Amino acid sequence: MTTPAKSRTLTLGHSPDPDDAFMFYGLAKYLVDTEGWEFEHILQDIQTLNERALREELDISAISIHAYSRVLDKYALLPCGASMGDNYGPMIVANSPFPASDLLRKKIAVPGEMTSAFLALKLYLKTAKFDYVVVPFDQIMDAVKSGRVDCGLLIHEGQLTFEREGFVNIVNLGEWWYERTGGLPLPLGANVVRKSLGKPALSQLNRVLKRSIEFALNPTHRRAAVVHSMQWGRGMTEELADTFVGMYVNDLTLDFGPRGRAGVERFLKEAHELDFIANPVALEFVD
Hints:
The protein is of the alpha/beta class. The chain has helices at 18-23, 25-28, 46-54, 65-68, 116-125, 140-146, 158-161, 173-180, 199-217, 219-229, 238-248, 251-254, 257-273; strands at 9-14, 38-43, 60-64, 75-77, 83-85, 91-94, 108-110, 132-134, 151-154, 168-172, 186-194.
């Protein structure tokens, strides 16, 4: 086992949802070689993790690609750990159908202003001027059902369960992005690591996190990892949890690859051109 030059406990932030839990199953259960590092798992919703990244509070963290554009000086992207919508993704749902062209006249519940889903919605609408309210991601369906809002921007497993809950799909932003970009995935989340840890440690940590993802994806371990992830599945069956995990933990999670990187570059480039993010973004990946 290789020992890092400066071994210590690192804070590792990720969302309390099945895909992140699946991804870090190997680390959480001490089933993979960590090369001497210890990890304190911190589970918080993605908006909170985005805000903490702005303050550089965590060593390693899941982060929205949207929020990454604001922490370039503090964090580098890990090549592994991405969540991408490959012809699927965040969607606007409502209690009854209406034309997507009416969205500018509707009140929309969104899961956070720094989420990639929110940025994708702005790109879809081509404006930042619309009526919305920030609601915790796991309360958006309730806000729509109660009539507090006209529709809601769903992330996580709601993309699979919305029909069962009685909602209709107004627009799927992942499908929209895939069609208009000629087949690029919609970049949603990634893992970042503090650059101040130093390049040798960053490379080592990338190996460790990728090892955890590979472990969970291995057919020998997959079912145990899915069962573990169901603690955060909010009533999902094992079959549904496995389907959801497969959507967001896959080959693009092991490595962005050319398609993934192209998707991120275009997503952030278009956001900058429409003044949704202040500065152009040059992606910085850990080697």
